[in-house]
Amino acid sequence: MTAIEQTEAARPRGTRLPRRARRNQLLGAAQEVFVAQGYHAAAMDDIAERAGVSKPVLYQHFPGKLDLYLALLDQHCESLLQSVRKALASTTDNKLRVAATMDAYFAYVEDEGGAFRLVFESDLTNEAAVRERVDRVTLQCAEAICEVIAEDTGLPRDEAMLLAVGLGGYSQVVARYWLASSSTVPREKAVQLITSLAWRGIAGFPLHGAEGH
Q1: Domain with 52 in it
Q2: Same domain? 121 vs 36
Q3: Which residues form a coiled coil (predicted)?
Q4: DSSP classification of residue 207
Q5: pTM here?
Q6: CATH assignment of the domain containing 120
Q7: Quick check: 209 pLDDT over 80?
Q8: Distance of alpha carbon 198 from alpha carbon 192, whole angstroms
Q9: Which residues 6+ apart lie within 8 Å of 91 measured at CB?
Q10: Distance CA 193, CA 159 (A)
Q11: Is residue 152 part of a domain?
């Protein structure tokens, strides 16, 4: 059950929940409000009302709005990182691996909760703690991709990292455009198209110690 689904299930005011369940419920409500309104326009009153709890209950779990936003950001940055790692580990066929990684970004932005907006389109990027988390997950995703590229091609790490940053950045920018433009191209076809483009580039670096790839 997602955080938002937990919010819906626990919406009635006054319901007593275990601490972890209550925290997840509050995070789900906060996600709905932050995605819809942005950080600056959102108020703790809105989040408490959305969760069906009193403000004191909300403050028992999160001392302030920034604490709540950072907890939510941590959750969704970790979700993105795990999705990318899972995609990379899903196959040893590199073309399929590229496709799986591209699809991980598309799936992330397509999630109905809109959590990707907190990571990639936050209106709070001037806040150091937010910027640090966004930069860190971008770097971690690139490092995961870099490990595969460096191992398979034998390229120096710095060169492999440049390629990895390019692939990761390309994936999330195209995925966000695809979603924002309400493209008529189905997700599967969109992934196929951008995979074809990316593969033509990365395939130019032959497997280390192999004549072909």
Answers
A1: 18-63
A2: no
A3: none
A4: P
A5: 0.84
A6: 1.10.357.10
A7: no
A8: 10
A9: 97, 100
A10: 25
A11: yes
CA–CA distance, 51 with 14 (Å, rounded to integer): 10
pLDDT in tens, 129-138: 999 999 999 9
Contact 87, 100 (CB under 8 A): yes
For residue 183 the two structure tokens come to 């493209």
Q: Which residue has the tokens 């005011």?
A: 13
> In which region does residue 182 sit, left (phi positive, over 0), alpha (psi from -120 to 50) or beta (all else)?
left
Q: How many helices (H) and strands (E) does the chain have?
A: 10, 0
Counting the structural domains of the chain, the total is 2
DSSP state of 156: -
Asked whether residue 164 is domain-assigned, the answer is yes
For 26-50, what is each residue's pLDDT tens digit? 999 999 999 999 999 999 999 999 9
Classify 16 as helix, strand or coil: coil
Q: Which residue has the tokens 């195209």?
A: 174
How many other β-carbons are positioned within 10 Å of the β-carbon of residue 76?
Answer: 22
